[in-house]
Amino acid sequence: MSVLKKAKKTLFLLLFLLAVLSGLAFSSRDSLRNITQNHEQKTVTASEVTLSGWSENNGKLVSVENASVTVEGVNCYVRNINIAGKFDVRDGYVRVRYTKAADEAFNDENMLIRPVKYMTGGGYITVLEDVYSLSVTLFDGGEGSLQISGVQVNPRGITISISDLLLWWSLLTVFAAAAALIFILGRLRAYLEVFRRFSALLRDLVSRDLKVKYRRSLLGFVWSVLNPLLMMTVMTVVFSQLFRFDIKNFPVYYLTGVLIFNFVVEATTSSLGSVLGAAPLIKKVYIPKYIFPLEKCLFAFVNMLFSMAAVVIVFTVLRIELHWTIFLFPLPMLYAFVFALGLGLVLSAFNVMFRDIEHLYGVWVTAWLYLTPVIYPLDLLSRLFRDIMQLNPLYHYVDYIRNVMIYGKVPSVRENLICLGFSLAFLLVGVLTFKRQQDKFILHI
Amino acid sequence: MSNAVISVRDVSMDFNMTKEKVDNLKEYFIKLVKQQLRFEKFTAVSHVSFDVLRGEVFGIVGLNGSGKSTMLKIISGILKPTLGSVEVKGTISPLIELGAGFDPELTARENVFLNGSVLGFPRSLIKEKYKEIIDFAELHEFQDVAIKNFSSGMYARLGFSIATLVRPDILIVDEILSVGDFLFQRKCEERIRDMMSGGTTVILVTHDIDQIQRLCSRVAWLEKGKLRELGATAQICPKYIAAGSEGN
């Protein structure tokens, strides 16, 4: 019986691992194909090419000093720059300058000079570089006009886009979660039965936490609203006077971001110590142990809902333009909740064995605040860091809630999948770790 | 069709005892690398089997450290046995320690509801029986006082009256009848007798051998984690007392 159980468990873990690994393998391949399909032979039309510094003689273009083409979207590998039109070059040269990233200026290091012996009517210059934007200058041209008709992008050699990889990984995680659900379907009824029996306890514990938190404070629940408002005021003063970030409506930008961020931090930090804190209970009565981290996450969630009042106040006072998408705000909150629960389960389980987690996590939270665009705009970061940012689940939740609440953007399927993927991945890992560890708790508390 | 409500089958419980408790990562890794991460196994209960029948009062006796409390914790599901299995039919109300889950910041009234849900009682039931609980605990004028201000006797009284709120199928009692003054003790004993006559199965652990002899029909005698003897109270208790005085 127990051998069978163990075998099943191992099998499941193996399957899960396999799914994740094959997901990684597939995603790298598929994201490549994805880019191939989207960007192969990307042609920049003439209207996207800005020409400057040209001089005319009797209606004919004499020289072009700078014609720049900006290729946006992916880090493109430029193979050829096609030049077409009426021109006639003899013994001249073409200078191509390019940059590797958005915040980089054209410099002389990134420069190609190609001599042009004889070119008439059209031709191409081979560049073979990974570029972000480039400028092309034709020197010593004869009479005629110059037109850059296209930038050909070679799909090969493209680095895998992290966002594409994430998308595939998320899809796989959703499948894995579905598989896990099917796997435990038989026992689900029993689990739900236990959960139902203790759901009253869950509610009582949350209300206890609320009562204890605000007992003996004059304003009580008002603090949940007042606290973020006061913090926002401080932040707004600091960041509109000290560091001037170019953010429209900073108070709203900050408040929406910090809403999600604080929720996750509060939920996970309090989950962290929840099992240890419940030691007296765990030692004396049987209670499913996941109740404790779950309760802390619920408590933080309730607090977040209170803090929503602060957002509403600021929206009204500052007369922020409202979009219908604002009603989608519970979605990012739910994603964040599932994520926080998963992380909380892992943390609380390991904190029982190693109390170090507690101290380490405090440091991590500080780092996390700076790793998430809560107080600064994402544009501040270089392209590389923006890519790395994709790996931060909190970034996606924060971005999501801002998109629906401030910018009125309808979230794409892709965004939803990535958010869901992160949440489910953490939940799965959390549940599995917690389940493996929970019988050992009593021996360590 | 067996009449057993609790069947304990070949249960063993091992604890890992490290000489120094390793509870931080640094030490863990240092010991892991040095391969010093060996635990000493301590067997608190080894290969114990017995059945408790429906409606009987079952006593567990033994000296300190004989594994009585561990056994109770295994039965009530708090500990998971290393080996063997325990099968329980019906609801258990563990009176292992009174007032488990009381929050000192909250008032008696709030704690009644909290503790009730800790024990898995539905809220409507607690609401219905609230007055009865407070009456039994004799805490009428203190129901809105934060229980951090309670005396230990008041604490225990409240705990006992919540835990015995409903008649559970199985009641586990560990040394708790020694709380409160003798008047309250008598009241507790009465309530337990009440339950017994109502068909509740009781498992009683106490060092008070008189109490065992007064209440129990059958007794399990544990010695150093092993089941030494199992049988009727009248047979086991004299032997247990004799063994005790022999040891002295």
Provide keyphrases for this structure:
heterodimer, A: 445 residues, alpha+beta, Jelly Rolls, 7-stranded antiparallel β-sheet, 14 helices, 7 strands, 58% helix, globular, B: 248 residues, alpha/beta, Rossmann fold, 2 domains, 6-stranded mixed β-sheet, 3-stranded antiparallel β-sheet, 8 helices, 9 strands, 38% helix
Q: Supply the number of structural domains of chain B.
A: 2
End-to-end Cα distance of chain A: 30 Å
**Rg of chain A computed from alpha carbons, rounded to a whole number of angstroms:** 28 Å
Radius of gyration of chain B in whole Å, from Cα? 20 Å
* Biggest sheet character of chain A: 7 strands, antiparallel
Q: How much of the polypeptide of chain B forms β-strand, as a percent range? A: 25-35%
For the record, give the distance between the C-alpha atoms at the N and C termini of chain B, rounded to a whole number: 45 Å
What CATH architecture of the largest domain in chain B would you give? 3-Layer(aba) Sandwich
**Overall number of domains of chain A:** 2
Major beta sheet summary of chain B: 6 strands, mixed
Structural class assignment of chain A? alpha+beta
What would CATH call the homologous superfamily of the largest domain in chain B? P-loop containing nucleotide triphosphate hydrolases
> What is the structural class of chain B?
alpha/beta
| pLDDT < 50 runs, ≥5 residues of chain A | 29-77, 140-159
Q: Largest interface, by Cβ-Cβ below 8 angstroms: which chains and how many residues each?
A: A-B, 27 and 30 residues
- Helix percent of chain B reads 25-40%
Strand percent estimate of chain A: 15-25%
* CA-based shape of chain A: globular
